Amino acid sequence: MHQDFRLLRVVSADGICRATIDHPPVNLLDVDLLTEIEILTNQVAADNEVRVLIVDSADPEFFIAHADVSLISDLPADDTARHDELSRFNAAMQALRGLPKGTIAVIEGACRGGGCEFAMAFDMRYAALGTTVLGHPEVSVGIIPGGGGTQRLPHLVGRARALEVILGCRDIDAATAQAWGYVNRALPGEELWRFVDKLAGRIASYPEEAIAAAKRAVDVALDPRTDLTTGLRIEDQLLRETLALPDTRRRLQAVIEAGAQTREFELGAAPKPPAT
């Protein structure tokens, strides 16, 4: 990464970019942090060496406390029209969600409001048992979650549970978040990074084109405008596009040569990707 960050500690190695939020005292998602998130997203998108983006926090008590209240309170009170363009915050979250890389949020500590909306823009979320709480307090002060919370959360947990979180304005712990599907897994602190590092390393070892194609295919399936037949056609096209890549052919041949499709091989370890 070439950009100097003030609020993010960014390190890239072995196909993995790790960005650690370090914005005392509570990791407030303000304009400055949002700007650095936008820059980070653009740089990761343009970096062909990066396969995985991990974002975590330097403060074990706060992932992101919430979005800066001024981002909402400074909006004009007389503008109640529906806008065609997305807000800056929502545009940034959509850019993050649309990255052709695997994205992982590692959540430790409090994460509320805009912090949750930021976390929901990632492909995967992993939370620390015993320390992580997630919440949406917006309705309690007379507004609604306006950074994607009302749109993303029901896809993760369903309508009834989303409304329990949003209307109830009470925190949920990591175990509940896992049971509901808000996060992928909730793990004890000592296990959390072992799991995430192993997962990120596996993803980073795979071809970037396959990662991007898999994400696109899954997103097609979740698009309400796409029927199943159309989705299957798009999936088939993406499969054929990945098969056309020389690296894919080489990997497939290496797996066959390693003994795939034999009983002994299939009952043993998964194939290792060929050396690049």
Automatic annotation (TrEMBL):
Keywords: Lipid metabolism. One of its GO terms (molecular function) is catalytic activity. It comes from the Bacteria. GO terms for biological process: fatty acid beta-oxidation. InterPro entries: ClpP/crotonase-like_dom_sf, Enoyl-CoA_hydra/iso. SUPFAM superfamilies: ClpP/crotonase. This is Enoyl-CoA hydratase, EchA8_1. The gene is echA8_1.
